Amino acid sequence: MSRVDIGFAEPCEPWRLLSTQFPSKLGGKPAWLSLKDLPNAETLQCTVCSNPKTFLCQVYAPHEDCENNFHRSVYIFACRNATCCKKNDNTTFAVFRDNLPRLNDYYSFDPPPEDTPTTFNPQQWQKLCALCGCGAEKSCGKCKTPYCSRQHQVLHWKESHKTTCSDTSSDNGAGKSSVHLLKEFELVIEPEELEAKQEVDVEEQLRACDELQRATGGELADVEESELDRHAAVDGDRTFTRFRKRVDCNPEQVLRYERDGEPLWIAETPRPEEVPQCECGARRRFEFQVMPQFLATVNEHELDFGVLAVYTCEKSCWGGKGYKKEFIFKQDVAD
Questions:
Q1: Tens digits of per-residue pLDDT, 93-138?
Q2: What CA–CA distance (Å, rounded) separates 122 from 112?
Q3: Strands (E), 15-61
Q4: Is the pTM of this model over 0.85?
Q5: Quick check: 295 pLDDT over 70?
Q6: If you placed Cys at 37, which of 29, 122, 133, 322 could pair as Cys (CB 3.0 to 4.6 Å)?
Q7: Whole-angstrom distance, CA of residue 133 vs CA of residue 128
Q8: Coil, strand, or helix at residue 308?
């Protein structure tokens, strides 16, 4: 019986991905939970090329037993510059967590309507970049459209703003999709369903491979070719074989969620030797991982990874100012 929930990308109406709907989503602009004290431009800047990181995805994952975590979301950003992306290196990634009590400054105490389109303007609390939707501290000198950075102002100007800019323009690009963002989807979370036979098969094959090698003293010359072929598939990289067999049960999954569980690693090494503690002093524990299928789903050709494992504060601490930074571990496919 699996304890894992898995996420699938599904198209949906744009209003379902607004902050008021508390979505889990891929691509597009982030649907911020708190609308003050967002991660600033410096925090979201790649330390290698200095370009702004791109929003990858967010997961809505409240802690039902904690009033201060009645609403809770985790956000992932990454630099998409291929030259910055190094093997098994998380330097160009960033993860943030935010939480709110049920009674808060931004949203209704009651659940949002499920079948009625809603409108929502987060800019009544926070100026957001017209291109990427992150916090904006700069603006167009003519029409005051907000931007997070000079780079995004230039990109947006070339893309569309050159033809819409005016002294009286109130268009800041809200709701418009930029070619510089990843393709947007709702992230639908469902319990993982496994075929018991598939789980057992790979373990039996691994044991059989060990027994075969022991029985022949490591000499396989006299073993039939068909039997060699059957074992070769699992003997090269056992971790990857387990990964592939597990994923084959639900091949379109883009995310796996198991709070305080273990990642489904794609390679034997590397793995985190030590996950740094939260700034509050509590340990961080594994919460979810992004799968390699994510890249094909959002048509991403620059960024590359095997799996992204996200670790968050076990207390999901609150208080203080702004979004809390969490830990991400990037593991790539073995050579």
A1: 999 999 999 999 999 999 998 888 888 889 999 999 999 999 999 9
A2: 16
A3: 25-26, 54-60
A4: yes
A5: yes
A6: 322
A7: 5
A8: strand
Per DSSP, the three-state class of 222 is coil
pLDDT of residue 153: 95
Per-residue pLDDT, 223: 47
Cα 310 from chain centre: 8
More confident residue, 202 or 78: 78
Q: 273-293 burial string, b = 16+ CB within 10 Å, else e?
A: eeeeebeeeeebebbbbbbbb
**Predicted pLDDT of residue 238:** 87
Report whether 184 contacts 28 (CB < 8 A): yes
Q: Which residues contact 281 (CB under 8 A, 6 or more apart)?
A: none
Whole-number Å distance between alpha carbons of 334 and 113: 46
Please name every residue paired with 138 in a beta bridge, in sequence order, or none if there are none.
147
- Judged by DSSP in three states, 163 sits in helix
What sign has the CA pseudo-torsion 181, 183, 187, 193?
negative
Q: Is the dihedral of CA 251, 257, 262, 266 positive or negative?
A: positive
Cα angle: 159, vertex 161, 166; to 5 degrees: 165
* Residues composing the chain: 335
d(CA 198, CA 3): 17
Residue keyed to tokens 């802690």: 63
Dmax (CA) of the chain: 83
CA distance 157 to 258: 42
**C-beta separation of 131 from 157 below 8 A:** no
- Cis amide linkage into residue 117, ω under 30° from 0: no
Q: Are strands 284-290 and 54-60 parallel, antiparallel or unpaired?
A: unpaired
Residue 287 tokens read as 């919460």
DSSP strand pairing (255-257 vs 185-191)? unpaired
Where does residue 115 rank: exposed (0-12), middle (13-18), buried (19+ CB within 10 A)? exposed
β-pairing, 93-100 vs 138-139, is: unpaired
Over residues 220-232, the mean pLDDT reads 50
Six-digit token string for 96: 């943030």
